[in-house]
Amino acid sequence: MEDFNKKYNMTDAELFAPIDKDELESEKITAPRYSYWKSVFRVFFRNKINIIVLVLLAAVIAFAYIYPSVIGYNAKVDPYINLNDTAAWHLSPSAAFEHFGFAVKWLFGSGANGGSTFDAIWNGSRISISLALICAAINMTIGIILGAIWGFSRRIDMVMNEVYNVLGNIPYTLLISVMVMVFSPSFWTLVFAMTVIGWLGMAYYIRTRVIIIRDHEYNLASRCLGTGIFKIALRNILPFMTSVIVLEIAAAVPGYISYEVFLSYIGLGLSEASLGRLIYEAQNAMVTPGWGWEFWTPVAVASVITVVLYVTGQNLGDASDPRTHM
Amino acid sequence: MTKYVLKRLLHGAFSIIAVVFIVMVLVYGLMNRDLVFAKDPLLSRQMNNAREVYKFQKWEEFGYLDYVTYADYLTELTRNGEIDEATRAEAVKFGRTAEGDSELTTEYVQKFREHYESQGYSVVRKDAVVSRGRLANGGQQQLFAYKDYSVFRRLWNYFTSIIYIDNIHYVPEETDIGERGLTFTWHDPMYGGEKFSPALMGNGTRYKYLLYFDDHFPFIHQNMLTINLGVSYSVTRGTDVFTSMTQSQGSWVQSMITYPTGHTELSADNLHTAAYVAGSRETSELLMARFTDDYTNTQTVQKNMSRLGYSFVIGIIATIFVYILGLPIGVLMARYKEGVLDKVGTVYIMFISAVPSLAYIFMFKGLGRAIGLPWMFDMDNVSKFMYVLPIVSLALPSIASMMKWMRRYMIDQMNSDYVKFARSGGMSDTEIFFKHVMKVAAIPIIQGIPGSILLAMTGALITERVYMVPGAGGLLIDAINAYDNSVIVGVALFYAILSVLSLILGDVLMAMVDPRISFTDKAR
Hints:
The structure holds two protein chains of two kinds.
Chain A (H helix, E strand, L loop, with lengths): L1 H7 L3 H4 L7 H5 L8 H11 L1 H23 L22 H8 L16 H36 L1 H14 L4 H11 L4 H10 L2 H16 L2 H8 L4 H37 L9 H7 L1 H5 L4 H28 L7
Helix pairs in contact in A: 4-16, 5-7, 5-16, 7-8, 7-10, 7-11, 7-13, 7-14, 7-16, 9-10, 11-13, 13-14, 13-16, 14-16
Chain B lengths: L1 H29 L17 H15 L2 E5 H11 L4 H7 L11 H15 L4 E5 L3 E2 L2 E2 L6 E7 L2 H10 L2 E3 L15 E5 L13 E5 L5 E5 L6 E3 L2 E3 L13 H6 L2 E4 L2 E4 L5 E4 L1 E8 L3 H4 L1 H6 L4 E6 L1 E3 L2 H29 L4 H15 L2 H14 L17 H27 L2 H8 L4 H26 L6 H6 L6 H9 L3 H29 L11
Antiparallel strand pairs in B: 1-5, 2-5, 3-4, 6-11, 7-8, 8-9, 9-10, 12-17, 13-14, 15-16
Helix pairs in contact in B: 1-6, 1-18, 10-11, 10-13, 10-15, 11-13, 12-13, 13-15, 15-18, 17-18
């Protein structure tokens, strides 16, 4: 200290100024800045595959949602525009290019009535993806909310377990097919059929997770300090579940698309020209030599869509787990 | 333990009843009941009033309602001795319109109306349909009463008739069939009466042979107790769901058969299955020449397995593959985490979980065709290779999920404290892994074993359809497509029983292998 005074030729009073004591500031604990969602995306984009997958996802969505309206696709008219031109039926892509000249719409050849398979597939994808997204949204919302309540309240747990035991035994396919049979097989019927007990599995899963986390020591401590149950659910438990929920949604959306395809294949699906319906209608084309395009292209597109959605969801789920944010 | 299992069984029985209740509400309550005729070729041949009556008769068969005609009512009265035969014969003739009734008929029609309306029935009188002075086709006047069953009544009727115990009062008491009773013989008359083969036979029962031996698995057969899950209307016309699942299929196996009259013929009839059909011999010369009594309805011996048999064989072989392939691969993936096998396996699991099942089943089908495997099930020339593709299609996705779960359980266990403790104690990783971790991780897998065995019987919907396997999985879909209510309910019951049983058995098995789990309240 003496040295400083000599070196700068200043007194203590000139070198140091007292600061006011700030009670509030002294309570703060300094920690590195951490934003949850920023970290999620940082981790997500660190993996280069995800960028490719996202580009594919964007392409799929563009084709499914924008392309049909750009070309003004009408599912009631367009598949039949070449109905009278028998030479245009069941063409492979190269034959279709020869017949119609090159155009994007003949990329997958032509269908049973000379309509463009490419257009039909993207229109069908729009229906299938919408169905899956709506079903997932409904089932997940109901499932998460009910599952959380189910997990928290012991009294509700008892009642819901019985409900689960009964409803869980109904063969799911049976229920959906009976619903489709009872009502007409329209889009909203299928949504209703798939959501009427579809949330149960998600709710049960959430309930189990909530019960596991609910009794952890930190929650016990939190409750002892007088935190409300609602706040505990929202602040203490939900962050733990985010990645689990994202993973579930990631598996659910492609699952619903597959299920729609399956239902259509067994003849119980939509009456609208969804992907499953296209596959169902092209069943016989599969075994006819030269007609394979009609069958395999919707199958392939359905697979690409489900894989892209699945991979995006899985990786987003991994990224939303805070333990990967180091 | 016993107490716990009994409690679970009771719970299970309740949930099975609830499932059937829900399915019945859906099928009988919500579905338009005219749809049951969608696949019925006979309805279109019925005209005018006959068409209405036909519908009501069918609805009664289906269990929708109770249907009584005026003639039935009068017959009932005669049987009770309230009116004599002459009155009945006179009263039954009701006119084309209500004005045309005679005085006696008016009186009894009024009684009929009052009797049934007081019980909540609706009474319908259809006047004759006349065109150009003549009765139109099917235009006969009709008079009947009907009442819809309530769901609870239907449920009660259904569950009380599921198990039928054969008894000597099956044949209506008025019918003269000689002395009713059971006879036991050491020498089955089917084999000429000299060969030693015990059999229990009945007269007055539904089946002639109640207990018998033959050369087919399981060698001893019984007909005393039959299971009725619901009689099919359109899928397998007139056959019970349980029978159509368990009966052999395909082309007939003929052999020289000596009928009870001594007549010998090349035939596929299995005389041991003879069931009573009232008055059948009188209407058929053929049956008269073959049988000495009215036990004439026999099942035929057919070459191929039953629906359940095919589904079970394919399902069980696939399940075996799932366990012998999926488990070790999952274990190795966990053991060498982040290794090549783990990465390849993860891609495979992802492929199976993401791609629609239909897509990869067709892919396997295409691949199988390319390497020359039979890709269609043909019951006339059965070869072992025909089973390959369905089994592969069924096993591959389940192997993926087995790998996924086994890997997950193993990795979860590897992070637990006892593993760290064992490692600090100086055990080698391999030793810990195979001696301790695997044992614990296998427990949830063991819980699933009874389920995968039992549920193999329900058949696989897509696989069976893609390869045209005549299995049990197709039955439900056929029934739904044909609006065959009773089959739907029957199959639902069958599924529900199997899934409840497999859950209970799984828990019991788990408790047996894991000493930490106890079902007694005290230990908790």
